[in-house]
Structures are given as structure tokens and as C-alpha cells.
Amino acid sequence: EDHWDEWDQIPRVSKKRPDAATVPAPKNVVAPTADNKTEQKIVIRKGDKQVIVKLGQGSAAKDLYKRLPLKVKFEDFNSTEKIAYLNTALNMQGEPKGYTPQVGDLAYYAPWKNLSVFYKDFRYSESLIYLGKIEKGTVNLETFEGEDIVIEAVK
Predict the structure, then answer these.
(1) pLDDT value of position 122
(2) Residue 60 class from Cβ within 10 Å (0-12 exposed, 13-18 middle, 19+ buried)?
(3) DSSP assigned state of 26
(4) pLDDT reported for residue 29
């Protein structure tokens, strides 16, 4: 007797991430360019160590940028990220419900009102909002603990 295995009929999904060049940008996002005034960068600095972050276009990233400069206290969390608490919540209007952070991401965790800088990949998290990506200085993240850490706009 011949039986067909319904699992063999399900298309397999590639685990490989698509090349950024092959993935079209969402229609509601303005891709930053050299002549485009929408590109915003910030620097996170402790002493002479710094990290440069290119911010995304979401409402939370724009709200963070408007609040700069900030002085924060970072601490290690879960051996995965450095976190710093904000006094007030960022604007979440139009933001997705969550995302899967990767090494070098700057994110905002809404329930705790904290910024997160990821030095290890992590799982999908509800209420975690992408703010930007480190462009330079990832190696300096290990020094980002304690007080006297400044976040300011790159002019």
C-alpha cells in the first residue's frame, strides 16, 4: 500500500538571509543617502571610548534623537546586551510589536524604558524596538558599564 507523506508536500524555507541588495526597502521608509537630511547618527561615549550608531527612521529613534544629549548609566544584562534606563518612554507610534536583535543593534525595550546595545544575537522579543545599528566602535562596548556615559548627536 502506497502512502504519501503530507510533510513532503510543504515547501522548504531557506534559512539563509537574503542579500540586502535583493530585498526591496519597505515603501514607507526613506533610505538615507549622503544628500538626504533624514540620516541621523549618534555617539555613545565613555571617556575616550566611543560607539557610532546610525539611527533608523522609526518614531522611537527620532524621539531618542530629539532628547540628546543624555547622560546614562549602562549595565550588563543577560551576558547579551548593555542596558541603560530612560526617565520617560519613547514615542512608539507606528512601531512594530517586536523584533529579533542582532549583534550591533541599538534597541529600546518599552516595558522597562531601557536602551539596549546588543553584543550577542538574541531571540525575537515582544516590545523590543529597533533604533539603529552600530557603524563603528563595537569593540568598545565592553567598557560601557557604570556612570558617566554620554549619548549625543553626531553633527
Answers:
(1) 96
(2) buried
(3) P
(4) 42
Q: How far is CA 93 from the centre of its chain?
A: 17
Across 5-28, b (16+ Cβ under 10 Å) vs e yields eeeeeeeeeeeeeeeeeeeeeeee
Residues 65, 151: contact at Cβ < 8 Å?
Answer: no
* pTM to 2 decimal places: 0.75
- Walk along the chain (155 residues) in steps of 10 and give the mean pLDDT of each run: 44 43 43 57 94 97 97 94 96 96 97 96 97 94 85 94
Q: Which three cell numbers stand for residue 55?
A: 539611527
Confirm if 43 and 72 have CB atoms less than 8 A apart.
Answer: no
What's the grid cell of residue 91?
514615542
Within the chain, strands assigned E span 41-46, 49-55, 70-77, 81-85, 98-99, 105-109, 114-118, 125-126, 128-136, 146-153
Pick from 53, 51, 58: nearest CA to 42: 53
**Which long-range CB contacts under 8 A does 32-40 form with residues at least 24 apart?**
32/57, 40/65, 40/153
pLDDT the model gives residue 37: 54
Beta bridge partners of 125: 99
State residue 155's pLDDT score: 84
